[in-house]
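Below is a filled-in request sheet from our internal design queue. Each sheet records the structural input a requester submitted and the sequence that came back. We keep these sheets so that new team members can see what a complete request looks like end to end.

REQUESTER: design group, bay 2
PRIORITY: normal
MODE: inverse folding
CHAIN LENGTH: 178
BACKBONE (tokenized):
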């Protein structure tokens, strides 16, 4: 079918309009994949940084709480060994010096053991524990003759042990007062 002829014998021709489209606002894509904008990456990084900063104090408190738990366990273990030594001495299982009041002369005696009559050896500690607050095997010692608030040991016997750490616990008490 032929297009109708207009007056004057001319055939109308359709006009095609072409627009130039700028691709400057579009991201290039490879095979239909898309990425993140710079702003999205900055926001995600900021959120991760905030979450990390919130987790650090919690981790520090958790570590301190674990050290405090270990300190309490070590103090209990040594105090229990002192009590078992005193009980065994009072039962006459081995000889002690008169002025010691049946308490051990030092912590090494609890770990090395005491020879009893008949060749039997009594040990009360496997080893002297390490103070988790000072990372040292050196503990504060008190004898029966010492003042309760004294920081110096009279070396007569070991009645009690305490940490030499000057730090403060999570509950506000001093470690040396435990």
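RETURNED SEQUENCE:
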């Amino acid at each position: 079918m032929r297009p109708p002829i207009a007056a004057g014998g001319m055939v109308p021709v359709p006009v095609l309009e072409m627009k130039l489209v700028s691709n400057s606002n579009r991201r290039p894509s490879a095979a239909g994949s898309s990425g993140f904008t710079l702003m999205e990456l900055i926001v995600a990084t900021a959120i991760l940084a905030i979450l990390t900063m919130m987790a650090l104090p919690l981790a520090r408190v958790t570590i301190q709480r674990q050290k405090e738990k270990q300190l309490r366990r070590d103090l209990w273990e040594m105090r229990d060994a002192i009590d078992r030594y005193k009980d065994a001495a009072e039962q006459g299982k081995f000889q002690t010096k008169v002025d010691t009041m049946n308490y051990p002369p030092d912590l090494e005696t609890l770990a090395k053991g005491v020879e009893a009559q008949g060749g039997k050896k009594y040990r009360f500690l496997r080893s002297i524990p390490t103070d988790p607050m000072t990372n040292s095997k050196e503990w504060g010692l008190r004898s029966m003759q010492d003042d309760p608030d004294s920081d110096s040991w009279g070396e007569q016997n070991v009645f009690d042990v305490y940490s030499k750490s000057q730090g403060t616990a999570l509950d506000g008490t001093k470690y040396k007062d435990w």
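SHEET NOTES:
- The chain has one domain: 38-177.
- The chain has a mean pLDDT of 84.
FILED BY: M.R.
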